Amino acid sequence: MTRDQARKKAEELVNRMTIEERAGQLRFDADAVERLGIPAYNWWNEALHGVARAGTATVFPQAIGMAAMFDDEFLEKIADAISTEARAKYNAFSAEGDRDIYHGLTMWSPNINIFRDPRWGRGHETYGEDPYLTSRLGKAFVRGLQGTGETLKTAACAKHFAVHSGPEALRHSFNAIASAKDMEETYLPAFRALVCDADVEGVMGAYNRTNGEPCCASGKLMHILRDEWGFEGYFVSDCWAVRDFHEKHKITMKPTESVTMALKAGCNLNCGCTYEHILTAYKEGVISEEDITRSAVRVFTTRFMLGELGDDGSEYDSIPYEKIECKEHLDLAHQASLRSCVLLKNNGLLPLDPSSCGTIGVIGPNANSRSALIGNYHGTASRYVTVLEGIQDLTAGANRILYSQGCDLSLNSVEPLALANDRLAEAVSVAKRSDTVILVLGLDETLEGEEGDTGNSYYSGDKEDLLLPASQRRLLHEVLKIGRPTVVILMAGSAIDLSEAQEKADAVLLTWYPGASGGRAVAELLFGKESPSGKLPVTFYRNEALDEIPAFTDYSMKNRTYRYYRGTPLYPFGYGLSYGWCEILELQTDGHAASVRVKNEGGMDAEEVIELYVHDEVSPCAPPNPVLCGFLRIRLKAGEEQVFSLPIDPNAFTVVDEEGNRIPGSGTWKLYAGFGAPDSRTEELTGRKAVTACLAGRA
Question: CB-based burial of residue 284 (10 Å sphere; 0-12 exposed, 13-18 middle, 19+ buried)?
Fold first, then answer.
């Protein structure tokens, strides 16, 4: 059904409704209108990395891990699988009369905010710190969720519009100040891409104010969204954000004023309960019937586009419940886990050989943790495979596996009545009796995530620094002192200062939150069944860098992210090692695309990611460092050579001035092709230098 057809149906239906019935449709838990055959509908559903909070579902790696794949085509397949499971649940549950929260077809994903500060707790919900990477991946996820049929398979939602990335503790009252240049260059590109290129059906506002206006009622942001970009879908507030207008931001005095501000600005749907005051505002004469009708038509247009109303139904109504956690989807999740892990260091210890690595000591609070597999906004798997279980299964009796939790994730003791460090002696004993040590550290959703509020299941928030919890730092130090060959595995969703591990461990593997069965993939990577191929979508800073980058509350991009950071990172954006050894032999370009000749000169098949960066070497408006403008995941057999063509981002040869105007660049650019960013730290860590080409750009 086209939007025009759906809008016409929506207008006809809304015209038959009373003003009370129309107002009742503008809450996330929309009322049934039985006399018109309209069932109740709950708009709130989540699909960040699998259908969330609705029972059994395939749990894929957390979003930041899927970003590390640098593979938009594969991400689209994952999103398609997620929407299949969402439809399967909706079909089954609605047939039973269940229209509860998290059971609908409007998925409030993806989160395309820019991960600008490494302390932000919700950063692992995003696709990282780069606007171009976020745009490419966000569009793919939307295409996969919404499908290509006559009706929408599900309705994706781009969130949180706009300029939202912490601090979590202040989000309900915070005013994010962003310059016109930073808005155009950093904070808005992904939203523009999803609206203009992927036809995303929904957009969710942020809790905070941006440049003085609450995001869920910002005249400036709504003008950009509706008038400049032509967005025709529905706009929803973040949950209970409209209530913040009068309770936290103090820009209105009472609920009716907040409702009036939001509805008139174009916030069609309220996640929360403040829109219960719409009728009061209507009776007071501050909201018109037209204001209510306009939003009611928008939300019903979306419902008709989903085929959720009327006799026509949807082509997806026949998707069976058996599609949930089917083999095809579990295989996709496994491949995603393999492709998302990032090898940060390897002195030759990896891949491990079961026949020669002897007794293996598996140590650490995340080694046998299910929570460390799943991140936040997750579903429930029917089976979980932790890292310890994955290693036990893969070695299958060939090696003795010793295990110690080592310490609590963040507390000083594991047992409440015990003294501090009550598992440390056990960990040291295991390490001393092992020939190879695998030390599994990191965080989980209880330590980094969304600030707890009524609409959130968890209570965590931002990180105070970039260090592992003190309990884990002690464990790391004491185990490394033993001197056994040691692999450090980090399970986390953000940058952690791993300086001691980088200096003293033999290998460091970042797994993010790798999905419900992620432990199997981690084991396969450790033992060389597959080669690691993930790349960092964020910069890993040393903890001291927090003294160099702007304050957390400062939204300026100066000295932030790889595009502007002047210091030396621990691990750079785009970085990731492999067991293979691919070389870029030649780079040619016409300014529209790059032709890259690559050879795998290593002894095993390998996946790699070709990364293109461009740098305007003259314009004062250009970022100081080269900027990602293209990428392609490739696979080459040992000894194989091939030429690959990569399109170049059309905006690569433009810059943004201080007034926020995107203008042609200087005309003098350098294009870089490599398997990481073209910086000195990447060269130091990889031993390879990017291949370059100089060119004149397009006007």
Answer: exposed
For 410, other C-beta atoms within 10 Å of its C-beta total 15
Structure tokens at 328: 């095809």
Q: Rounded to an integer, what distance in angstroms lies between the CA atom of residue 143 and that of residue 153?
A: 10
Nearest to 286 by CA among 269, 266, 264, 254: 264
Q: Which of 508, 507, 529, 509 is nearest to 520 (CA)?
A: 529
Residues whose CB is less than 8 angstroms from the CB of residue 612 and which lie 6 or more positions away in sequence, other chains included: 594, 628, 629, 630, 631, 646, 648, 671, 672, 673
CA-atom Rg of the chain in angstroms: 25
**pLDDT, position 699:** 44
Residue 287 lies in a domain: yes
Cβ neighbours of residue 586 under 8 Å, at least 6 residues apart?
Answer: 595, 596, 597, 691
3-state secondary structure of 612: strand
Residue 186 in domain: yes
The SS3 of residue 535 is: coil
| Domain match, 255 and 355 both | no
Provide the annotated active-site residues. Answer: 238
pTM over 0.90: yes
Residue-wise pLDDT for 441-464, tens only, equals 999 999 999 987 544 444 579 999
Check the CA dihedral 689-691-695-699 and report its sign: negative
Q: Which helix (H) or strand (E) segment is 402 a member of?
A: strand 401-404
- Written as one string, the DSSP assignment of 540-582 is B--GGGGGTSPPTT----TT-HHHH--S--SB-TT--B-SS-E
25/295 Cα distance (integer angstroms): 9
Q: How many domains does the chain have?
A: 3
The CATH number of the domain where 610 resides is what? 2.60.40.10
Residue 168 and residue 280 in one domain: yes
Residue 399 lies in a domain: yes
What SS3 class is residue 101? Answer: coil
- Pull the structure tokens for residue 7: 């809008």
Please state, rounded to an integer, the average pLDDT across all residues of the chain. 96
What is the phi/psi pair of residue 616, to 5°? -80, 110
Question: Does residue 343 share a domain with residue 297?
Answer: no
Distance CA 447, CA 468 (A): 10
Q: Are residues 531 and 615 in the same domain?
A: no
| pLDDT (tens digit per residue) in 588-621 | 999 899 999 999 998 888 899 999 999 999 999 9
Asked if the structure places residue 316 within a domain, the reply is no
What digits encode the pLDDT tens for the residues 621-631? 999 999 999 99
Average the pLDDT over 250-261 and give the result. 98
